[in-house]
Fold this sequence. Notes:
The protein is α/β, with parallel strands linked by helices. The chain has 8 helices and 14 strands. The chain has helices spanning 10-22, 33-42, 59-68, 84-91, 104-117, 151-162, 170-177, 188-200, and strands spanning 2-6, 26-30, 47-51, 53-54, 57-58, 75-79, 96-99, 125-128, 131-134, 139-142, 145-147, 168-169, 206-209, 213-216. The strands form 4 sheets. It has a 5-stranded parallel beta sheet with strand order 2-1-3-6-7, sandwiched between helices. It has a 4-stranded antiparallel beta sheet with strand order 8-9-10-11, covered by helices on one side. Helix 1 (10-22) packs across helix 5 and helix 6 crosses helix 8. The longest helix has 14 residues, at 104-117. It starts with a strand and ends in a 10-residue tail after the last strand.
Amino acid sequence: MRVLVAEDDENLRVAVEAALRGSGLAVDTAADLREADEALAVNAYDCVVFDRMLPAGDALPYVERRRQAGWTVPVLFLTARDTVRDRIAGLAWADDYLVKPFAVPELVVRVRSLCRRSGLPTPSVLRWRDLELDVGAHEARRGGTGLRLTRKEFAVLERLVAAAGDTVGRTELIAAVWDELVPPASNVLDVLITQLRRKLGPPPVLHTVRGVGYLLGDPAPPAQNG
Length: 226
């Protein structure tokens, strides 16, 4: 899950980013509305956290304009504006509203909850052959045996199981599980795939599609000469 945090207070922005990353989310940040708008133009997010009062002005009218244009990404406002009128105005266009000062663990829980609302509904349990992923409980099993996966390993396997045997590109996996700080040429995905193959055990089901990405399935038969 990928989150954008638009906050001009650098110390708070860094603290929120660290907490969200620590919970297994990919995080991009922006210091003002211009940077946020640029990030939204090129990336898909599961949730956006806006400080209401940014250098270029109140984020509320910005979110309102995007909502009226059909934008559906969940939004959480962070703000020191705590009157009932402010909350009503914010919740008219956002999905959640958290008043400063706030407890960072509470923010993390709220953001993760909003992330789960984004996109199309998906089954709480995903299955492919003898693999079973309980997305809600964050549990994975193969042949009925539990797998001890990290959050990122689980997220990659979830994408692969959801693809039901189709190839999932490297860029898609990196964008979904990490963030814009990780370039497509980075080896972080290769390292994770190696660890995931070891944890999945035999017989091997996670295969590389050279130059493209990865898939769950049977390896392609060797090419025949002649």
